[in-house]
Design goal:
The complex is a heterodimer of chains A (about 350) and B (about 260). Chain A is built from 13 helices and 12 strands. Chain A has about 350 residues and is an alpha/beta fold. In chain A, the strands form 4 sheets. Chain A has a 5-stranded parallel sheet with strand order 2-1-3-4-5, sandwiched between helices. Chain B has about 260 residues and is α+β, with helices and mostly antiparallel strands. Chain B is globular. The chains are: A alpha/beta (about 350), B alpha+beta (about 260). The interface of A and B includes residues 149, 166, 262, 266 and 279 of A.
Chain lengths: ~350, ~260
Amino acid sequence: MTNPKPRLLLIDDDAGQLTRLSDEIRAKLGDDVTIDLWRPEFNAAIRDELKKQLEPRPTLVVTDHDLTENGASGLFGGTIISWCRAHAIPVGDYSRKLSEDLEEPDMFEFRFDSEASKAAEQIAHLFLGFRELEDLLAHRQDPEVESWSQSLAIALGREEMSSSFSLYSMRAGASHSSAIERLEQEYGTAEARRLLEIYVIGHLLHNGILRYAGPIMSDRVLCSYLAIADSNADAAAQIFQEARYDGPFGGQGRFFWQDSVDDVLTGLAEAAELDGDPADDEFRRAVMERHLSPGTHGCNRCGGIRGGFRCPYTDRTTCDRPDCSVASSSWIPQGAYLTRVEKDYYERWAPLLGL
Amino acid sequence: MSVLRAKTTLRKQMNLAWSELTSSIGRMAADCEVRPNSHAEVFDIDREDDQSMRVVVRPVAFRLKEKAADDRAEMFVTVRGKVNFSIDAGMDPPRACYFNSEVGYFRLAGSGSKKVDHVLGIHYDYDDRRPVHPVFHAQLTSCQSHLEFINARYHPQLELRDDLMTHVARKVRLPTAHMDPLAVFVQLLADHLLNENSGSIESAAFERARTALMFFCSDPAKSRRLEEVRGNNCFRGPRWYPIPQAHGSTQASAT
């Protein structure tokens, strides 16, 4: 018997939006994927209908925020999300009505753009990332692991990164106890473990490790790390090609391993006969000045020549000057050591939001 | 290996050790931790001289239980110091040729209290030169000033109630093991987060941290005194003291 095609479930109360989204995703993923559409209608037994829609188990569920227009009064994306989370099914939403508010990031939820073509791009990458992760975990060399972080590190061929990854969520397992129970009842212990592992690792990798820079950084964070302008991203990406991260969800942009970046940088410094510390942002910029003509990044505190970190909220380069950034924020995962909140932003919002 | 490459390698190893330590503490006791989280804020690595590289361990502050069985983490411990590594000894494994460590223990005066007592202060040192100093030794001392490190890392605005180290005999030099700052970290985990009832998860986390923090070794070749220890296969305290003049030239070369 051949394996069934992986399944993607799209939920929206607007038939036109469903078709547009589905067509865009189909164009990106081809015919190896089953894309099912669900337009909820008035139905007293919405729970049974939802249960039916989630069989067979999809790789990813995508829902609109407001699902009430077709008669399913009171049905919102939140219900779908809760249900999927309770069954450890990756789920994300978008909204065509609400603007994106400033809110605490949720590690176990995906957010997509409200514009169909952008959302389709994001959904396709996410879907492929989960498929790639599933495949990697199934073929990893040492299946006996003690933690999700070790499992991910082994799957990526970087076992030494296990502890660095673990800092992104010290207690990832504890919040899924009810999902474990459900999955075990439904699929048995071994399969429940496999499904939950894909679910937990996928979210922590996509929403934690790749979003909040630490052991892995995006090309924009690479520019911040090197204390150069964002406009130098293409040139920097080329120089640091051998430090590229090419694991799951890596197709959403250009990502780099921080320790490999340091190795490349050390080689560049040796070639230029420069002495210093690759952990020093000013030294990193000095090395880059020997290999390209880097721009400044526009910060008026340092004149755009310092760096090392990036603020995820202002999307700007920050450095360790006390007037530039703060290191600790409850909104930043513990392991994200290349992430610091810009001080002005922190002082404006921290008292209100507990940032 | 160039000095720059050696520095990059050393930093990578230090960073991994720090990540393993912070992650292990979380596994051993959910309410215990060490700050700062980021290794970038902990280690400064630079060349000391032509023969060695210096790693400065900036002040770090642990929040721990006094005993593993306690239900509250009411003990703060601060550590700072430095370790020097021989460049000429190669870097696989790195060899530590000098270190010092300052460790301050502060106990909350009571649950929810804003006051602490400074209950223990220790200075660990390596001395292969001065005649009456054991090669590895500790001296009790007041680390009262370390309270500012705790306040900077945890923002609790703690105040000192009592410094129990004020009148200790500071001149006493206790022969010890090689207690560089990273060795002290292992001791803190063992003393405060493990006991005979610890389960396999806690024990495994401790072992991972211990292994990660053991990525470098002492450099006995740098110390005539340790050569004698090894040569005699004897670890008694007297071996930590100077080699008698007739046996070697360490005294002369040190002065």
